[in-house]
Amino acid sequence: MRSAVNRQATAFKPGAYQTFCLMVHSAEDRNIAPLAAKIEMAQTMLELGWSVEMLVYDASDIDGNYIKNTDHGMGLSMLTFFERGSGMLRSMARPFKYAAAEHVIYHAGKYRYEFDYRHDDIRARRCLLD
Fold first, then answer.
1. How many other C-beta atoms lie within 10 A of the C-beta of residue 73?
2. Could you tell me which residue, 115 or 98, shows the higher pLDDT?
3. Angle at CA 128, nearest 5°, toward 31 and 56?
């Protein structure tokens, strides 16, 4: 795990970007991404100079809105995740600058996610693909 993280994380020089990595993870994810492996990844990233925040959720955190279960992914809505994550970024003491991209689109499963950075807030949209 450490060598894979090192290869990925060192592809970006620490300080070259003001990158903030927010991870949310289920304490009960044992098969796809065990908690110990995620913690090791976060620790390696911190050692390499990345700014990392890792939030770990368990069954007591299930609220039916944000956290829906304790499986891998926790039934998390990507839109809600980005809303909460951007709120966390705005509350950080250091200045936050959005990425240079103005409009980002990516596909995941049957959805297309779009993020618009051209405004003071990040605008997100999820579209069902045909």
1. 14
2. 115
3. 30
